[in-house]
Design brief:
Distance between the termini: 71 Å
Strand content: 5-15%
Shape: elongated
Number of domains: 2
Radius of gyration: 24 Å
Amino acid sequence: MDVHAEIARLARVVHGPVNHDVTPAHVLDEVTRSAVEVLPPVEDAAITLVRKRHREGRAELESTAATGPIAQLFDTLQHELDDGPCFESIWQQRTVRIDDMAIETRWPKLAAAALERTPIRSTLSMQLYIEERELGALNLHAHSAHAFDEEIEDLATVLATHAAIALSTARRGQEFRSALASRDTIGQAKGMIMERFQVDAVRAFDILRQLSQESNTPVAEIAARLVHSERPTLAEATDLPTG
C-alpha cells in the first residue's frame, strides 16, 4: 500500500470541494478509520476532545470516533486517572509517544491499568487542533511494543494536519447551516406574528426580541417553539403572559 497516496485520498475525502457539507463527526470517524487502515502499526485509534476545563484545573474529556472498545477504554482510563499521553499532547502542543507500556515510568498507574485491561503496548498521541473553546488529540495504539518509529510519526503528523484543516472547515460549514436554519425559522415565526397580530415585519421581530429579553431565551428558540407548536401562541413560546 502507498501510504502517501492513501493520505492524499483521505485529504480529498475530508476536505475536498465536493464534500463541503461533511459533518465534524464524519471527519473524525474518517480520520481514525483511515489511521488504522493506512498506518501499518496502528490497530486502534480514537480522538480525545477536551469539552470542559474546570476552575480547579481538572479537564473533562470525551472520547469520540473510536475504532473500537479498546481505544475508548484507554481514553476512559486517562480520564479516570486525570493523566496520560493525550493530556500531555493537548496541553504541551506536541506529539507524545509511549514505546513500551511495560516499562513506562511517566504514567505508571495508566500503564499498569492498560497492561491489565487492554492489549495496547505502545501509543502515539498528537495534538489534533486548537480552537478558541476546544482542544483535541489524535491517539493511535499498537498491540506491540516499539511499534512507532520516526517515519510513522511523520505520516501520522500529516494525517493529523489534514484532519485539523478538515475539522475546522466542517465546523464552519455546520455553523453556517445552523445559522441558515435559524434564519428560516425566525422568518417563519415573524410571518405567523404578522398574520396573527396584523403588524409589519419590523414590529414582528421587535416582539420576538422583546420576548427573548423578558424570558432570557434566545430569539431562535422562541421562534422554533412558535413554528413547531400545533396551536402556537406567544405565551406558549415563552411561558410568559403576553398582556
